[in-house]
Amino acid sequence: MKRTLTVCPYCGAGCMFYLVSDKGRLVGVEPSTTHPVSRGGLCVKGWNAYAFVHHPDRLTTPLLRRDGVLKPASWDEALNLVVQKLRAVQKKHGADAVMFASSAKATNEENYLLMKLARAVFGTNNIDHCARLCHSSTVTGLAETFGSGAMTNSISCIDQADVILVIGSNTTEQHPLIGSRILNAVRNGTHLIVADNRRIRLARHADLHLRHKNGSDVALLNGIMHVIIAEELENRDFITARTENFAALAKTVAGWTPERTAAATGLETGEIVTAARLFAAAERGMIVYSMGITQHSHGVDNVRCIAALAMLTGNVGRPGTGVNPLRGQNNVQGGCDMGALPDLYSGYQKVSDPLMREKFAHAWGVAQLSATPGLPLTRAMDAASAGQLQAMFIMGENPALSDPDLGHARRVLENLELLVVQDIFMTETAALADIVLPAACYAEKEGTFTSTERRIQRLSKAVEPPGVARADWEIICAIAERAGYQGMRYADPAAIMDEIAALTPIYGGIAYGRLDPHGLQWPCPDRSHPGTPLLHTERFTRGTGRFSTAFHHLPAELPDAQYPLVLTTGRTYFHWHTGSMTRRTHLLDREEPSSFIELHPDDAARLGVRNRDLLLVSSRRGKVRTEARVTDMVIPGVVFMPFHFAEGAANTLTNNVLDPESSIPEFKVCAVQVEKLP
Question: Which helix (H) or strand (E) is 642 found in, with range?
């Protein structure tokens, strides 16, 4: 048997394991005992990460829609048609009538190349990826306050924290190896504050569990900061030496007394005061958050408040401290780093900067690059509905199940002049496509992923892809070649990384020969640099840290007489994202086979609902059938659904209202009604 060291394809923790293969087929995994995150362990998804690779549903040949049916075609025919139809749309409607969607499941090299294809070959900045749905609020909020939109510390810093505030993150289910690390820290004496209105597993071990109302995070954090300043618990030395705009923050939070905060959040005043004192008293305080903070119509404001709390208490730039957003997908950090964003090139270099445009145009061998920022992915659907967008090229994403207001998203995808999907399975989105291109999965190619702690790691090819499927990078290069562009000829992914390093200062020292066995953390500016486990140690990336004030706004849609319950969405331990991989893994699908909705016993009694009853859940956007799960995991008036299940798609219900700054949808709050079906 052969053992191949590679990176887990699921969450952003970046665990590494050995894929075990026998005669060209994967038969299991073995965790890396030396890896700094996994440390000889894996979660249930990691242990089963080999099982979907040889599934009979894998796409094995290109498919073209003929007479309304997807039928097999050759690579030459499919790729020529992709270029021909994309060019035709642009000739008819303009360069920006095409949208490219990159993938947090694809490698850094592949995200970089799709960004390059969009900009250098097809002349548009309409390139984005699923960070728009999960952490675009983080990129915007932390870039403004710190100068860098990434996790400030390393996962190992959890071991050194005196207190950890986990807010909006069901860590044990979304990032299990990080969740277990937090639990181990608690066993060793670290204090834990959990702010989440669901009784998640971490809450059982917390010193304090704050079950605040959905959408009241700004009020809660402003209230905590009010107490810290009123009781003179702030770190004055840090504030004076390393920050700016403190007076504005103090003025903003002055009115957020414990009484006002309690009224806005549904908490007791004593809980707010206790949380403030516990966090401020710690020598090393760490904040961990995820999509429960970002996926709101005021997600950027939530992030601003988290950054302000860290600076207020001096908890930035040291081990055991920091602001630590946990990335939901294996390479969502890398997708951002690679410039799969409508307004940024790789390394967060702005397309609006003429010097950056000149730099990339020269390197790519094109006369000029567009100065107009492109469309965020979440605004692309409305643009297509309005006729501004006529074609989409989607690599490794499934918006027909992951976008909010799925009815609207599906209608848009069906009505495009051209939809090209590049994926490993016939997803709900691929089933709507005009052209489907079969891709290799993580186990069948070389490349790098960047984890939530900014760790760039190599994945290695363990087996061959099925049929004539190809690695995403090979497909992208072939499209560029057929489009007449000569600047995408690479011997291998290592050569692509060399180009990335030459153009991307934070990756300047990255080369494949330096990444064995466990990678390097950016920024890594040159070949002699050891990588950076901690950001903002002496100064913030922007110089001084900026206190950016935030005002409490209610969610865009509140419960009323017709829709009296608040729906929030998330993940389960056994599944991941839209389930295209985990639901094709027998053990995982057996453990959580179908959609469900959690509702509190009080709400269940009022509705006459018992466990496992079939329910109809309705919002202003649609209806789904699902099964009842009566539990005190949720508070009265709130229901929870996972979004993994196409047959009970929670995003049929969710609201497509967007944060005005980051364009992230408000997945975490919408109004629904629940009815028991006969």
Answer: strand 638-642
Domain span at residue 173?
A: 152-326
Q: Tokens 């190619």 — which residue? A: 445
Rounded Cα distance between 311 and 49, Å, is: 39
- 167 DSSP β-pair partners: 195, 289
What distance in Å separates the CA atoms of residue 394 and residue 434, rounded to the nearest whole number? 12
Please tell me whether residues 109 and 160 are part of one structural domain.
no
Residue 409 inside a domain? The answer is: yes
3-state secondary structure 583-607: HHCHHHHHHCCCCEEEECHHHHHHH
CATH number at residue 234: 3.40.228.10
Residue written as tokens 């965790």? 31
pTM (2 d.p.): 0.96
Q: How many CB atoms lie within 10 A of CB 70?
A: 18
Asked if 644 contacts 396 with a C-beta cutoff of 8 angstroms, the reply is: no
How many domains are there within the chain? Answer: 3
* Closest to 472 in 3D by CA, of 450, 488, 455, 452: 488
Three-class SS state of 525 = coil
Helix locations, 464-557, DSSP H: 472-482, 493-503
Half-sphere exposure at residue 463, Cβ-oriented, CA atoms within 13 angstroms:
23
The per-residue pLDDT for 551 is 94
Q: Are residues 368 and 457 in the same domain?
A: yes
CA distance 668 to 198: 12
| Residue 18 counted as domain residue | no
Residues ≥6 apart with Cβ < 8 Å to 624: 595, 616, 617, 648, 649, 650, 652, 653
Backbone φ, ψ for residue 241 (5° rounding): -80, -30
Rounded to an integer, what distance in angstroms lies between the CA atom of residue 548 and that of residue 301?
A: 9
CATH number at residue 384: 3.40.50.740
The pLDDT, as a whole number, for residue 577 is 87
Residue 431 pLDDT exceeds 90: yes
pLDDT level of residue 47 (50, 70, 90 thresholds): very high
d(CA 437, CA 77): 11
- 401 neighbors 385 (Cβ within 8 angstroms): no
Are 471 and 109 a contacting pair, CB within 8 Å? no
Is the residue at 521 inside a domain?
no
Closest by CA to 134, choosing from 374, 316, 8, 303, is 303
Q: What pairing do the DSSP bridges indicate for beta strands 208-210 and 16-22?
A: unpaired
What DSSP line would sit under 301-324, residue for residue? HHHHHHHHHHHHTT-SSSTT-EEE
Query: Confidence band (pLDDT; 50, 70, 90) for 130?
Result: confident
pLDDT at 134: 83
Helix (H) or strand (E) holding 446: none
Residue 423, Cβ density class (10 Å: 0-12 exposed, 13-18 middle, ≥19 buried):
buried
Kindly report the average pLDDT of the chain as a whole number. Answer: 96
Alpha carbon distances (Å) from 202 to 221, 437, 608, 629: 20, 41, 31, 20
Angle at 548 (CA atoms; ends 546, 553), nearest 5 degrees: 165
* 355-409 tens-digit pLDDT: 999 999 999 999 999 999 999 999 999 999 999 999 999 999 999 999 999 899 9
